Amino acid sequence: MERPDLSVVIPVFNEVESLPELHEHLMEVLSGLEKSFEVLYVDDGSTDGSDRVVDGFCVDPRVKAVHFRRNFGQSAALMAGFDFARGEVIVCMDGDLQNDPADIPRILDKLAEGYTVVSGWRKDRQDPSITRKFPSMVANRLISAIGGVRLHDYGCTLKGYRREFISKVGIYGEMHRFLPIYAKWQGANIAEIPVAHHPRTMGKSKYGLERFFKVLFDLLLVKFYGSFGQKPMYAFGGVGLASVLISFLCFLAMVYFKFWGGKSFIQTPLPLVAVQFFLIGVICFLLGITTDMVMRTYFESQGQRPYLVDRSRNLDGD
To answer: Domain containing 283: what range?
Structure first.
């Protein structure tokens, strides 16, 4: 089958109330474009009937659906969308009506200027300040500083990608917010544009303040992947070398106190500290070797996907 010009990927989890309005507005916007398109809904194990609503949309062959067996999270849903989408350009957005489909043409126009990734910026964000906006602002600044890609709003799902920069990206856990960084590693040219953001009027938010701490942990992983993803021995070996060096200095101090300081080995904690740091160093070296072997196995074997598809509609091979 010929590839469409555009694929719109929408992760869905318990959004039964907002889906009909979203779909109507989305199809109106896409039908006004002079482009072929498909819409791919990824049902992330909804329990409120969203799956039946999505299947109802599939009477239009331009609408596709993938249903997970259970809830795997937004990162897995987006990854499935990227796997099954066939468009030359892929735009992803939320299914809760807070993103506006009317911004899709603006994203496409920006991509047409030569950019390979266009990220939405919810400049006038309609969310609570204390629990959502302030933690998001802090997280965005941290991610920009550590990840090396300066964006105002990593958490905005509304983004556009050229297929070649996103189709091979593996995103696990809660790593979807770092997609621009992954694309940058592949040489992507990234732009950011302000987009509309509407207050939630239906359903319930799936995120709370605890997401801030998940972002911090994920950011450490992203930094590790970026700096040591293909050479983990450098990280573990560096820590191991520092530990062995500390152990050696403790040994020298222990000997000094024994012969010139008037203190026996058992009168100071230095022997115990020296042994502990030496063992830490050995363990770090072994971890470095092990993770290097795991990394090589990962890159040399076929990749596994972090989701299980229960059924699909209107996909090739159905």
So the answer is: 232-300
Q: In angstroms, rounded to a whole number, what is the distance separating the alpha carbons of residues 58 and 175? A: 29
What angle, 0 to 180 degrees and rounded to 10, lies between the N-to-C axes of helices 270-300 and 232-259?
170
Alpha-carbon span 46 to 13, nearest angstrom: 5
pLDDT digits (tens, 9 = 90+) for 31-70: 999 899 999 999 999 999 999 999 999 999 999 999 999 9
Listed in order, strand segments (DSSP E) in 23-94 are 37-43, 63-68, 89-92
Same domain, 209 and 251: no
Over residues 78-120, the pLDDT tens digits come to 989 998 999 999 999 998 888 999 999 999 999 999 999 999 9
Q: pTM for this one?
A: 0.75
Considering the domain architecture, whether residues 18 and 142 belong to the same structural domain is answered as yes
Last residue of a domain, one of 174, 201, 226: 226
CA atoms within 13 A on the CB side of 32: 11
